[in-house]
Amino acid sequence: MPPRRLKLLLAASLFLNAAGAGFLAVRAARKGGLRYVLERLDLADAKPEELDFQKGLKARYLKLPNTPGEIDFAGDSLMGDGPWEDLFGTIKNRGIGGDTTAGLLDRLGEVTEGHPRKTFLLIGTNDIAADIPVAQVVRNYRKILERFRSESPATELHVVSILPVNQTFAGGPVHDNAAIKETNRRLKALVAEFPGVTFVDVFDALCDPQGNLRKEWSKDGLHLNIDGYLMLGGLLKRYVGETPVVSAQ
Question: I want to staple 114 with a disulfide (CB 3.0 to 4.6 A). Which of 7, 14, 66, 156 is the partner?
Fold first, then answer.
């Protein structure tokens, strides 16, 4: 290769590397600086900032009494928005909008201290949306399962797969189903390491032929509408072990 051409290629490579580094630096500065970079490289555990409404819900849950033989649904808004009491009767809803696996891990003591008879976990979509590495999501899930085994060993645990999304909605989710499917694959393998814990795979049942969350079951491509929750409730009813108040259509 002629020296002049080689120099041009080297100059172009240096320019692109510098531009890429500059873009990452600007994005990192906006998102929290060095900590953001370390978290996305899985060199530090993510510590999401709590919003006021999340702090309020955590405080509320801590003040509510525990009841013998309770069934808890814990996770993010996909749990928190569910009409579980209408579907199954008495359910302790411990979902918080915007929560992540790290957030649930941080407040897990409020769930385990009641020694629930059953707990359903649905968490992780916000991690993926925030570009938290899959390895870190799985690591947090492992800690959650280990704490249940230590703090409430008799609890029957069910890990619900992360739900599909549909990016065709205007202003829809920023994360895609490929990342969700990979995370679910690794969560299923993790659950297999814990005897007695069930992985409830609902992903395919909520998808259209293109592999996206069905539009008729969502309001924004991420969250479920009431029809979506009726479908999800129908998928979970055999694990809840209660007679649904409303059947999936």
Answer: 66
The confidence band for 177, taking pLDDT boundaries of 50, 70 and 90, is: very high
Q: How far apart are CA 231 and CA 159, in angstroms?
A: 17
CA distance 122 to 111: 14
Mean pLDDT of the chain: 87
Q: What is the pLDDT of residues 77-118, one digit of tens each?
A: 999 999 999 999 989 999 999 999 999 999 999 999 999 999
Contact between 110 and 61 (Cβ < 8 Å): yes
Q: How many CB atoms lie within 10 A of CB 191?
A: 22
Tokens representing 38 are 């370390």
Q: Is the pLDDT of residue 32 over 80?
A: no
Establish if 135 belongs to a structural domain.
yes
pLDDT at 40: 73
Contacts with 96 (C-beta within 8 Å, 6 or more apart), sequence order: 54, 57, 58, 75, 76, 77, 80, 103, 107
Give the range of the structural domain holding residue 66, as residue numbers without chain letter: 52-240
Identify whether 247 is part of a domain. Answer: no
Residues 16-22, mean pLDDT to the nearest whole number: 53
